[in-house]
Protein backbone atom coordinates (compact mmCIF):
# COMPACT_ATOMS: atom_id res chain seq x y z
CA UNK A 1 0.00 0.00 0.00
CA UNK A 2 1.24 3.51 -0.82
CA UNK A 3 0.98 6.08 1.96
CA UNK A 4 0.96 9.86 1.70
CA UNK A 5 3.22 11.97 3.87
CA UNK A 6 2.38 15.44 5.17
CA UNK A 7 4.09 16.89 2.09
CA UNK A 8 4.19 15.33 -1.33
CA UNK A 9 3.15 11.90 -2.51
CA UNK A 10 4.97 8.71 -1.79
CA UNK A 11 6.75 6.77 -4.48
CA UNK A 12 7.36 3.08 -4.94
CA UNK A 13 8.13 1.32 -1.63
CA UNK A 14 8.25 4.61 0.24
CA UNK A 15 6.60 6.44 3.12
CA UNK A 16 5.68 3.80 5.71
CA UNK A 17 4.10 4.71 9.01
CA UNK A 18 6.34 6.84 11.31
CA UNK A 19 8.68 4.87 13.55
CA UNK A 20 11.27 5.47 16.25
CA UNK A 21 14.23 6.89 14.33
CA UNK A 22 16.71 7.11 17.19
CA UNK A 23 19.20 4.64 15.69
CA UNK A 24 19.06 6.23 12.26
CA UNK A 25 19.52 9.74 13.62
CA UNK A 26 22.38 8.59 15.83
CA UNK A 27 24.20 7.01 12.88
CA UNK A 28 24.16 10.28 10.93
CA UNK A 29 25.29 12.39 13.89
CA UNK A 30 28.22 10.33 15.12
CA UNK A 31 31.59 11.17 13.62
CA UNK A 32 33.44 7.91 13.09
CA UNK A 33 37.05 7.18 12.28
CA UNK A 34 37.37 3.52 11.45
CA UNK A 35 38.94 1.03 9.11
CA UNK A 36 36.36 0.37 6.40
CA UNK A 37 35.92 -1.86 3.35
CA UNK A 38 33.85 -0.96 0.29
CA UNK A 39 32.50 -3.71 -1.99
CA UNK A 40 30.79 -3.81 -5.36
CA UNK A 41 29.28 -7.03 -6.69
CA UNK A 42 28.18 -7.50 -10.29
CA UNK A 43 28.14 -10.05 -13.14
CA UNK A 44 30.15 -9.44 -16.31
CA UNK A 45 32.63 -10.80 -18.80
CA UNK A 46 36.17 -10.25 -17.53
CA UNK A 47 39.74 -11.00 -18.56
CA UNK A 48 42.56 -11.35 -16.04
CA UNK A 49 46.01 -12.28 -17.26
CA UNK A 50 45.51 -14.86 -20.01
CA UNK A 51 42.16 -16.07 -18.66
CA UNK A 52 38.75 -14.99 -19.96
CA UNK A 53 35.52 -15.58 -18.04
CA UNK A 54 32.04 -15.06 -19.48
CA UNK A 55 29.24 -13.89 -17.17
CA UNK A 56 31.44 -14.28 -14.10
CA UNK A 57 30.51 -13.16 -10.60
CA UNK A 58 32.85 -10.32 -9.71
CA UNK A 59 33.43 -8.74 -6.32
CA UNK A 60 35.64 -5.67 -6.15
CA UNK A 61 36.75 -4.53 -2.70
CA UNK A 62 38.69 -1.56 -1.37
CA UNK A 63 39.99 -1.53 2.21
CA UNK A 64 40.81 1.88 3.61
CA UNK A 65 40.15 4.22 6.53
CA UNK A 66 37.39 6.78 6.96
CA UNK A 67 40.02 9.43 7.70
CA UNK A 68 41.09 9.16 4.04
CA UNK A 69 37.70 10.24 2.65
CA UNK A 70 37.69 13.65 0.94
CA UNK A 71 35.24 15.76 -1.08
CA UNK A 72 35.33 14.80 -4.76
CA UNK A 73 36.37 18.03 -6.44
CA UNK A 74 34.88 19.39 -9.64
CA UNK A 75 31.67 17.36 -9.78
CA UNK A 76 29.28 19.27 -7.52
CA UNK A 77 28.40 19.25 -3.82
CA UNK A 78 28.10 16.33 -1.43
CA UNK A 79 30.30 14.01 -3.51
CA UNK A 80 33.10 12.04 -1.84
CA UNK A 81 36.14 9.99 -2.78
CA UNK A 82 38.58 7.68 -1.04
CA UNK A 83 41.85 7.54 -2.97
CA UNK A 84 43.96 5.54 -0.52
CA UNK A 85 43.50 1.85 0.15
CA UNK A 86 44.07 -1.72 -0.96
CA UNK A 87 41.93 -2.88 -3.89
CA UNK A 88 41.20 -6.54 -4.56
CA UNK A 89 39.02 -8.60 -6.89
CA UNK A 90 37.45 -12.04 -6.58
CA UNK A 91 36.20 -13.63 -9.82
CA UNK A 92 34.01 -16.73 -9.68
CA UNK A 93 32.79 -18.81 -12.62
CA UNK A 94 31.27 -22.16 -11.74
CA UNK A 95 33.75 -24.00 -9.53
CA UNK A 96 36.66 -21.71 -10.48
CA UNK A 97 37.64 -18.75 -8.30
CA UNK A 98 40.52 -16.32 -8.81
CA UNK A 99 41.52 -13.75 -6.20
CA UNK A 100 43.89 -10.92 -7.05
CA UNK A 101 45.21 -7.69 -5.55
CA UNK A 102 45.58 -4.54 -7.62
CA UNK A 103 48.82 -2.63 -7.78
CA UNK A 104 48.63 0.47 -5.53
CA UNK A 105 47.39 3.81 -6.76
CA UNK A 106 45.20 2.59 -9.63
CA UNK A 107 41.71 2.57 -8.11
CA UNK A 108 39.62 4.73 -5.83
CA UNK A 109 36.05 4.60 -4.50
CA UNK A 110 33.61 7.47 -4.94
CA UNK A 111 30.00 8.52 -4.44
CA UNK A 112 28.49 11.34 -6.51
CA UNK A 113 24.79 12.12 -6.01
CA UNK A 114 24.95 14.73 -8.79
CA UNK A 115 25.25 11.89 -11.33
CA UNK A 116 23.47 9.33 -9.13
CA UNK A 117 26.58 7.15 -9.27
CA UNK A 118 28.82 5.17 -6.95
CA UNK A 119 31.63 2.76 -7.62
CA UNK A 120 35.26 2.14 -8.47
CA UNK A 121 37.11 4.63 -10.65
CA UNK A 122 40.60 4.73 -12.13
CA UNK A 123 42.95 7.15 -13.88
CA UNK A 124 43.47 7.92 -17.55
CA UNK A 125 47.04 8.04 -18.94
CA UNK A 126 47.00 11.84 -18.50
CA UNK A 127 46.11 11.47 -14.82
CA UNK A 128 42.50 12.58 -15.11
CA UNK A 129 39.81 10.59 -13.36
CA UNK A 130 37.84 7.87 -15.16
CA UNK A 131 34.71 7.86 -13.00
CA UNK A 132 33.10 4.85 -14.68
CA UNK A 133 35.99 2.43 -15.13
CA UNK A 134 36.29 -0.31 -14.08
CA UNK A 135 32.67 -0.20 -12.84
CA UNK A 136 29.99 2.08 -11.43
CA UNK A 137 26.35 1.85 -10.49
CA UNK A 138 23.86 4.38 -11.83
CA UNK A 139 20.46 4.79 -13.52
CA UNK A 140 19.81 3.53 -17.06
CA UNK A 141 17.27 4.83 -19.55
CA UNK A 142 13.92 3.07 -19.30
CA UNK A 143 14.76 1.23 -16.08
CA UNK A 144 12.71 1.64 -12.94
CA UNK A 145 14.31 3.83 -10.24
CA UNK A 146 16.60 1.96 -7.88
CA UNK A 147 17.80 2.77 -4.37
CA UNK A 148 20.86 4.76 -5.52
CA UNK A 149 18.75 7.03 -7.70
CA UNK A 150 16.28 7.60 -4.86
CA UNK A 151 19.06 8.51 -2.41
CA UNK A 152 20.62 10.92 -4.89
CA UNK A 153 17.24 12.60 -5.32
CA UNK A 154 17.00 13.11 -1.57
CA UNK A 155 20.52 14.55 -1.33
CA UNK A 156 20.52 16.84 -4.37
CA UNK A 157 16.91 18.04 -4.24
CA UNK A 158 16.27 17.99 -0.49
CA UNK A 159 13.39 15.68 -1.40
CA UNK A 160 13.30 13.45 1.68
CA UNK A 161 9.60 13.98 2.41
CA UNK A 162 8.77 11.87 -0.66
CA UNK A 163 10.55 8.83 0.74
CA UNK A 164 10.38 6.44 3.65
CA UNK A 165 12.25 7.17 6.87
CA UNK A 166 14.47 4.17 6.17
CA UNK A 167 15.48 5.58 2.78
CA UNK A 168 16.14 8.99 4.32
CA UNK A 169 18.38 7.36 6.93
CA UNK A 170 20.46 5.63 4.24
CA UNK A 171 20.79 8.92 2.36
CA UNK A 172 22.33 10.42 5.50
CA UNK A 173 25.21 7.90 5.54
CA UNK A 174 26.44 7.99 1.93
CA UNK A 175 29.59 9.97 2.73
CA UNK A 176 31.82 6.86 2.53
CA UNK A 177 32.42 7.11 6.28
CA UNK A 178 29.62 4.80 7.40
CA UNK A 179 28.28 1.34 6.63
CA UNK A 180 25.77 1.64 3.82
CA UNK A 181 24.03 -0.29 1.01
CA UNK A 182 23.33 1.00 -2.51
CA UNK A 183 21.97 -0.69 -5.62
CA UNK A 184 21.44 0.22 -9.28
CA UNK A 185 22.47 -0.80 -12.79
CA UNK A 186 26.12 -1.25 -13.78
CA UNK A 187 28.11 0.69 -16.37
CA UNK A 188 31.74 0.34 -17.44
CA UNK A 189 33.33 3.03 -19.60
CA UNK A 190 36.22 5.46 -19.44
CA UNK A 191 33.96 8.50 -19.92
CA UNK A 192 30.25 9.19 -19.63
CA UNK A 193 27.64 11.91 -19.54
CA UNK A 194 24.71 12.06 -17.16
CA UNK A 195 21.22 13.01 -18.27
CA UNK A 196 18.58 13.15 -15.51
CA UNK A 197 16.06 11.74 -17.98
CA UNK A 198 18.30 9.05 -19.49
CA UNK A 199 20.79 8.24 -16.76
CA UNK A 200 24.39 7.15 -17.41
CA UNK A 201 25.37 7.41 -21.09
CA UNK A 202 28.78 5.94 -21.92
CA UNK A 203 30.80 7.93 -24.45
CA UNK A 204 32.42 6.23 -27.46
CA UNK A 205 35.80 4.97 -26.38
CA UNK A 206 38.85 2.97 -27.26
CA UNK A 207 39.68 -0.19 -25.36
CA UNK A 208 40.63 0.99 -21.86
CA UNK A 209 44.03 0.16 -20.51
CA UNK A 210 44.19 -2.92 -18.35
CA UNK A 211 44.45 -2.60 -14.59
CA UNK A 212 47.51 -4.28 -13.12
CA UNK A 213 46.99 -7.05 -10.56
CA UNK A 214 49.27 -9.71 -9.12
CA UNK A 215 47.58 -12.17 -11.53
CA UNK A 216 48.07 -10.04 -14.64
CA UNK A 217 46.16 -7.24 -16.35
CA UNK A 218 42.41 -7.07 -15.70
CA UNK A 219 39.95 -5.88 -18.36
CA UNK A 220 36.21 -5.33 -18.01
CA UNK A 221 34.40 -4.74 -21.33
CA UNK A 222 32.32 -1.66 -22.06
CA UNK A 223 29.22 -3.83 -22.51
CA UNK A 224 28.98 -4.71 -18.82
CA UNK A 225 25.30 -4.65 -17.94
CA UNK A 226 22.79 -5.81 -15.36
CA UNK A 227 22.25 -5.00 -11.73
CA UNK A 228 24.87 -4.45 -9.06
CA UNK A 229 25.18 -3.86 -5.33
CA UNK A 230 27.60 -1.57 -3.48
CA UNK A 231 28.06 -1.79 0.26
CA UNK A 232 30.51 -0.69 2.94
CA UNK A 233 31.20 -2.10 6.38
CA UNK A 234 33.56 -1.34 9.22
CA UNK A 235 36.43 -3.76 9.71
CA UNK A 236 37.07 -5.45 13.10
CA UNK A 237 38.60 -3.09 15.67
CA UNK A 238 41.98 -4.82 15.53
CA UNK A 239 42.16 -3.80 11.85
CA UNK A 240 41.91 -0.10 12.69
CA UNK A 241 44.94 2.12 12.24
Break the fold down into its secondary structure elements and pairings.
Layout (H helix, E strand, L loop, with lengths): L21 H8 L5 E14 L2 E15 L3 E3 L8 E3 L3 E8 L2 E6 L6 E5 L4 E7 L5 E10 L8 H11 L7 H7 L8 E8 L4 E4 L3 E4 L8 E3 L2 E4 L7 E8 L7
Antiparallel strand pairs: 1-2, 1-14, 1-15, 2-5, 3-4, 4-7, 5-6, 7-8, 8-9, 9-10, 10-15, 11-12, 13-14
Overview of the molecule:
Helix 2 crosses helix 3. Helices cover 11% and strands 42% of the residues. A hairpin with a 5-residue loop joins strand 8 and strand 9 (129-138). By secondary structure, the chain is mainly beta. Strands 1, 2, 3, 4, 5, 6, 7, 8, 9, 10, 13, 14 and 15 form a 13-stranded antiparallel beta sheet that branches. Strands 11-12 form a two-stranded antiparallel ribbon.
